[in-house]
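## Example record

The block below lists the input lines for one assembly entry, exactly as stored, with component labels intact.
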Amino acid sequence: MFEFALLGLLHEAPMHGYELRKRLHDLLGAFRAFSYGSLYPTLRRLQRAGLIVEEGPEESALSWGRRARKVYKLTPEGKERFADLLANAGPQTWDDDSFGVHLAFFSRTPAEIRMRILEGRRRCVEERREGLRERLTRTGEQIDRYTRELHRQGLESTEREVRWLNELIAHEKSEQDE
Amino acid sequence: MFEFALLGLLHEAPMHGYELRKRLHDLLGAFRAFSYGSLYPTLRRLQRAGLIVEEGPEESALSWGRRARKVYKLTPEGKERFADLLANAGPQTWDDDSFGVHLAFFSRTPAEIRMRILEGRRRCVEERREGLRERLTRTGEQIDRYTRELHRQGLESTEREVRWLNELIAHEKSEQDE
DNA sequence: GATCGATGTATCGCAGCGATATAATCACCT
DNA sequence: AGGTGATTATATCGCTGCGATACATCGATC
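Predicted structure tokens for the full assembly:
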């Protein structure tokens, strides 16, 4: 997840940790935290795996006075890895957290994979919707007033998301046969 | 979180792990996973902390043939701890994950604390809403079509949740001065 | 009598968060 | 000139919690 996001961002341009975090926060801050406690360990993991490399810090001699910062850039393996993650978009791709991140990189994602992710997400939300419906209409066992409210709100919210996804999918389709 | 949920459930009756998980899944499955990988370690943590104790397995001699199961029940300290968690309902209480869990135990929660949680949650969602609004109306830097869609959907969704919370709060108020 | 799904307990490795430490620079005020 | 606070920047620690997996027993169905 974090890995996917970092690779996606570095696809645009080499960056250092702080900037990566700022971009992520700006891009998806409303949906996910992206804390430093994950950022730096993940960067080192990617580095060890050879997916990113530290650019020589020398060429920043221009604007000196700055604090030491490590600029990372994608290796060819890193680019490959990102493409793989996209191509293998599977079940774990469509859960709440993951989906938002993928959507943020959609303009960089092949149309056919976009479609797969949108439809996977729709199915996932539909399943949750059915679960909520079933729970609400279930007779027998009385259900707590507050829990019922929670489920009602959840149901409405998933219904809206399905409608929204349908619009996105329709738009994709209409673009496909331009 | 998990701790809170387990203590809350055991408040009703002594239970063993599998049943706790089933109840949680039934109660909040649409919102959270509550996997075994957390359940058993948490139970042991609670046990070590003296908040729950294992009931002697002897008295299940009645329905024998069942597999060995460990039934846990709350200690007085456990009940105290649950009350503390409620009384100290703070900032981390109103984030997405936590709020649903708390709501599920609302009928067991004092009215004044219910109010604090609902209002805290509302403020939290309002803040997210403002962040999304600001992001969407910000001029300058062009924003990706898909990311914009995500934010639009997020904004609508938070607006709805605020309205929903307002209704819950109004209902609480009307009940307060019965 | 075989297989399948539910019941049941448990562990392992991993992802990711929140808090915190450290430190340099910058903008601003006095 | 000096102080103060926000911003830039990297990094670690402990903890929560998930997914996968393993193992074992039981009841039902075929």
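Chain B is about 65% helix and 5% strand. The longest strand of chain B covers residues 71-74.
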